[in-house]
Amino acid sequence: MTIVNFKKNILRIVFAMLTLCQLFSCEKLIELDGNPPTYITNQQLFADSATVMSAVAGVYSYSQSRGFGFSDANLTIATGLSSDELSVVDNNSYFAQFYSYTLTPWSSGIIGLWNYPYQAIYRVNDILEGVTGNPRISESLAKQITGEMKVVRALYYFYLVNQFGGVPLVTSTDFEHNAKLPRSSVETIYTYIRTDLQDAVNNLSADYPSAGRVRPNRYTAKALLSKVNLYLGDWQMAYDEADDIIGSPLYGFADVPLRAVFLEESEEAIWQLPVKTSYRQTDEAQTFIPNTGAVPRYLVTSFLLDQFENGDQRLLEWIGETTVNDTQYRYPNKYKNKSASEVPTENYMIFRLGEIILTRAEAAAHLNNMDQAIKDVNVVRKRAGLLEIQMDQRSQEDVLNAVMKERQTELCFEWGNRWFDLKRNVTDASSASTVLHTHKSGYKPTSNLYPIPQAQRDLNNRLEQNEGYN
């Protein structure tokens, strides 16, 4: 389903929403207990705070086509295969094209990576329009929801721009206008992201607005803002935002066991979504954990396995192992619960403190604050059961390499971090061209961006294709 379908289906959707709104109490929707109902909003439904919160609940629902746009594990698969984290067993599957760098504008694997975020952006824009200047809700609620939705919208644009480069900047629900938008530049998209996030920082408080850490607070906005500034090379801004989060008493790291990092109400969590339904928990677990006696569909590469030092507990806790016909296979195992009945419950982690600590470490190294950078790296290493790195006579390049290595092992299989790190070319040792040419064939500089889906270009002839895919 694409944005085009919203207009012709809106009457049916509105009717469905009115029915759903009668099934769930206002209190449950506000608290977002469990996995909330999902639906597409319409301006006419923002009649009071209850209907506003009904729309907000849908945004955080763990459903990629009707709620949260990154809940199908496809981003993890695509970026893991594109980088050096994963290989695919079935070379004929459409995801194998990410591993071999043979994507085309007609590849099935790219469709959801483009469509689902834009569908979600439409919902976010609809809510923003519904609460702006709305006399039927309080100013404080409008301010809160505006801040939350701007964090969500910034998240979608951040991942769109890092996968596809410049993309259309859709900021309203005006279908006629949006249908023929050209691609905005990468710089324009990043400027918009930072503006949204700064507005969110100003609008949100440090307190979470409902139970758990499902809806963004001020530190959630800062987490993404620190990441954006890191990618843009604004080291001081990245450092300051990360430092503010790390200094908050809301979050913990050292005392959070590796096994508990992704659990519901993890102290390390900055933003996580409830995923449990009547039949399953995360799609990540469903995708990566094989059935008994079956070969995993996606394997951890020997390259990544070799990066874990002896005694690294992350290798034991976060990478699974199975033997089939006397052959050993290793697979991602950060999320361990496939069925709804497994306990304790896991939530889908979007931001956690471990990433923020490594963000501060990288920014500190670029600011020539080597003491702080090494200190942060050692905090992460200590929890993993590793010895501390000593500071004696380490150059900036040495420290940056240490940070990037720790990012590789700490953040593997999370939100494309490794693929984006390779493309950022922080150091020669971590550049995509160096690493991927070493152990994979087919990589070329134009592989750094995915092609724009041809179906979208057929609908909008103003969408120019990325280099290398014409």
UniProtKB/TrEMBL annotation:
InterPro entries named among the record's database cross-references: SusD-like_N (IPR033985), SusD_RagB_dom (IPR012944), TPR-like_helical_dom_sf (IPR011990)
Alphabetical UniProt keywords: Cell outer membrane, Membrane, Signal
Gene3D superfamilies: 1.25.40.390
Location in or out of the cell: Cell outer membrane
GO cellular component labels: cell outer membrane
Main subcellular location: membrane
Domain of life: Bacteria
Residues in SusD-like N-terminal domain copies: 82-230
One Pfam family linked to the record: SusD_RagB
Family stated for the protein in its record: Belongs to the SusD family.
Protein name: RagB/SusD family nutrient uptake outer membrane protein
The organism's taxonomic lineage, starting at the top: Bacteria, Pseudomonadati, Bacteroidota, Sphingobacteriia, Sphingobacteriales
